[in-house]
TrEMBL record, chain A:
Keywords: Periplasm, Signal, Transport. Residues 1-27 form the signal peptide. It comes from the Bacteria. This is Spermidine/putrescine ABC transporter substrate-binding protein. The keyword Transferase does not apply. It holds the Pfam family SBP_bac_8. It is found in: Periplasm. Its main location: periplasm. PANTHER family: SPERMIDINE/PUTRESCINE-BINDING PERIPLASMIC PROTEIN, SPERMIDINE_PUTRESCINE-BINDING PERIPLASMIC PROTEIN. CDD domains: PBP2_PotD_PotF_like (cd13590). PROSITE patterns: PROKAR_LIPOPROTEIN, TAT.
UniProtKB/TrEMBL annotation, chain B:
It comes from Pseudonocardia xinjiangensis. It comes from the Bacteria. It is a multi-pass membrane protein. Residues 58-264 form the ABC transmembrane type-1 domain. It is found in: Cell membrane. InterPro entries: MetI-like, MetI-like_sf. It holds the Pfam family BPD_transp_1. Signal peptide: none annotated. The chain crosses the membrane at residues 54-83, 90-108, 145-165, 243-267. This is ABC transporter permease.
């Protein structure tokens, strides 16, 4: 080999690099599944991962001949960003969390529910006609959850009954650095606002910023993580104090019964994941057919058992078959008073403030 | 005819590369809203992106990318050198062994590290068995875990260009150096390394540049602690839906990449001349 050959090597290398990225690009295109032709009886659902029991989907397909195609997101932010862009067109059904529905309705991103085509009378009245969507004009409740705390009582030195307890517990030696906060700014700032008895849906930015300052001080001292729904680190003790929902708590406690769960006072979050129909949903008949199937008692019970979150069926607790482990936890634990809980309503004026605080919390942790 | 043939990729590049880039630049000067922008001209986005927390994140990320890039290149160098110069007929098999994992899902490979480094996981057990560790291993959620994950993830890309360049260095050059009395180390530093500069620079480029935007590893292995540019960018686009500020940060990352590329090109300049 001569030096002349060697001189070509940089170009060859860049060529090889190009080929490498082209391969990766093609692989990515292949992985996305490509664009299939739209079938007449199609239903495109955009939802959280594993959010429908397979038994229900199969039974619906058998009954209707429609196979729902489900695309998933991992946060309301992703859903919101997509619905708000051209990439969000073509979906028939989405499952946003309660607080976003007002915002979607005001932006004309979702359409009104045709109540003549649905029967909501089997649903729990306490989950209907709520402040974020009066008369359920735009949404139908699917299932609900609570923001609470999973903790190891030996590490945190006792029970956590208030958010102030949570903040104090985080500062104990042995707990610092083994804490997990939420990935959402308003859920984290909510902790300080609730502990101080403030309104979570306040539009007063100075109140939000004061709550944020309190959390920033706390995070600087306690060095929490901000992660996913994976409960393994909680089960194995790498995390001893974590903000979580009740389904995660149930999974963790089943694996490590020494752990405890509470919904601290004076108030905490109640969220209701709800069906909503995007503005230009192309397959409306399929949507209503699917919703009517999902709202049957049998489907609601099957979904509850699959998800670990309670669906909106009225009297659900009494209708569940016996023998389900930790059934109390599905409903947020014994003695939880839903009327004392708060639902966050997304407000375009305050969201940037919460997001800015969340970014700072990440940087300070 | 050649012009027509060039037109197709030209159009493709314009549509998928130049147009989005111009849009990003235009957005970076726009007035932001939540999920909304008003086109105009303001430098506020750049002022924010270059101030306080954002500037600090920028510096931290560049330091991490350059550090991890250098570490990847250094770790890959002996591997590439060994395969190119000493593996003989096993070279293909060894390269395949290094590259195969690279073609599996990046996400799965990073998630595997969650298991490997977890408290009670294999690393923990081995360190305990050897008596090197007495408390539970607490690596997940730390910057160290992020560095391990990133360097591991990009190592194969650092091996490949260095392998190519090492394998193309004529043995006659090192033989001549040996004849003139140069020892193994001297042959490597004075003959092989200068000739290998383009491969080393390409390896550095292919690792450090994507590391600037790394998002998955800090999230999965770092517990979301601390802040890097990739996360900051994602936060602005997805969570805050502040496309204007997100675009300003993206443009600044592009500038940083440009500087990095320029530096590396400078490093390999003079390569086309006879090696010193």
């Amino acid at each position: 080999m001569t030096l002349h050959d060697l001189r070509l090597s940089r170009r060859n290398l860049l060529g090889a690099a190009g080929a490498l990225s082209a391969t990766a690009f093609l692989a990515a295109c292949g992985g996305a599944g490509g664009g299939s032709a739209a079938a007449a009886s199609q239903l495109d659902i955009y939802s959280w991962a594993d959010y429908f029991a397979q038994d229900n989907l199969t039974a619906f397909t058998t009954a209707s001949g429609i196979t729902p195609k489900i695309t998933t997101y991992d946060s309301n932010d992703t859903l919101s960003a997509k619905l708000n862009s051209a990439a969000g067109t073509g979906f028939d059904l989405v499952v946003p969390t309660s607080g976003w529905i007002t915002e979607y309705a005001s932006r004309d991103l979702v359409q009104k529910i045709d109540h003549s085509r649905l029967n909501l009378s089997t649903l729990d009245p306490s989950l209907l006609d709520r402040a974020y969507d009066p008369h359920n004009q735009y949404s139908v409740p699917k299932d609900w959850g609570l923001q609470g705390v999973i903790y190891d009582p030996r590490a945190v030195g006792g029970d956590i009954t208030t958010w102030q307890n949570f903040l104090d517990a985080g500062e104990r030696p042995g707990v610092q650095g083994k804490i997990r906060l939420s990935g959402s700014g308003w859920e984290n700032v909510g902790v300080a606002l609730w502990a101080d008895g403030k309104d979570w849906n306040t539009t007063d930015q100075s109140v939000i910023r004061a709550g944020g300052d309190r959390m920033k001080d706390w995070v600087t001292r306690t060095k929490p993580q901000f992660t996913s729904s994976n409960v393994d680190p909680i089960v194995n003790g790498s995390i001893v104090l974590a903000i979580h929902d009740q389904a995660g708590a149930r999974r963790a406690i089943e694996q490590n019964p020494a752990l405890r769960w509470s919904v601290p006072g004076p108030t905490s979050q109640l969220w209701v994941d709800s069906y909503a129909i995007p503005k230009d949903a192309p397959h409306l008949d399929a949507v209503y057919s699917f919703l009517n199937y999902e709202l049957t008692e049998k489907a609601q019970i099957t979904d509850t058992r699959f998800l670990g979150y309670p669906t909106a069926l009225a009297g659900l607790r009494g209708k569940l078959p016996p023998g389900i482990d930790n059934v109390d936890l599905i409903f947020g634990g014994a003695g939880v008073d839903l009327s004392k809980l708060t639902t966050f309503v997304v407000n375009p004026d305050t969201i940037p403030v919460y997001q800015e605080i969340q970014t700072e919390l990440h940087a300070l942790s | 005819m050649p012009h027509l043939l060039a037109a197709a990729p030209g159009l493709w590049l314009t549509a998928v590369f130049v147009a989005p880039l111009l849009l990003t630049v235009a957005l970076s000067f726009a007035h932001p809203g939540f999920g909304d922008v008003t086109f105009g001209f303001t430098l506020d986005n750049y002022r924010t992106a270059l101030g306080g927390l954002y500037a600090q994140t920028f510096v931290q990320t560049v330091v991490l990318a350059v550090g991890c890039g250098a570490l990847s290149v250094l770790l890959a160098m002996p591997i590439a050198y060994f395969i190119a110069r000493h593996a003989g007929r096993f070279a293909g098999a060894l390269l395949a062994a290094i590259l195969l994992p690279y073609f599996s899902s990046f996400l799965i490979r990073v998630l595997s590290w969650q298991v490997i480094l977890a408290s009670g996981g294999p690393v923990d057990s081995v360190l305990h068995a050897l008596g090197l560790l007495h408390a539970p291993l607490d690596l997940i959620g730390t910057r160290a875990a992020v560095v391990i994950g990133i360097v591991y993830g990009y190592l194969p890309i650092a091996v490949l260009p260095q392998y190519v360049v090492f394998s193309r260095i004529p043995r006659s050059t090192t033989d001549a150096a040996a004849d003139l009395g140069a020892g193994a180390w001297r042959r490597f530093t004075s003959v092989v390394l200068p000739l290998a500069r383009p491969g080393v620079a390409t390896a550095a480029l292919l690792t450090a540049v994507p590391m600037l935007g790394e998002l998955v590893v800090p999230q999965l292995l770092g517990g979301g602690r601390g802040l890097l540019l990739g996360q900051l960018l994602q936060t602005q686009y997805v969570q805050s839906q502040n496309y204007a500020l997100g675009s300003a940060i993206a443009v600044l990352i592009l500038v940083a990449v440009g500087v990095l590329v320029a530096l590396l090109l400078r490093l390999t300049r003079g390569f086309d001349e006879a090696p010193r």
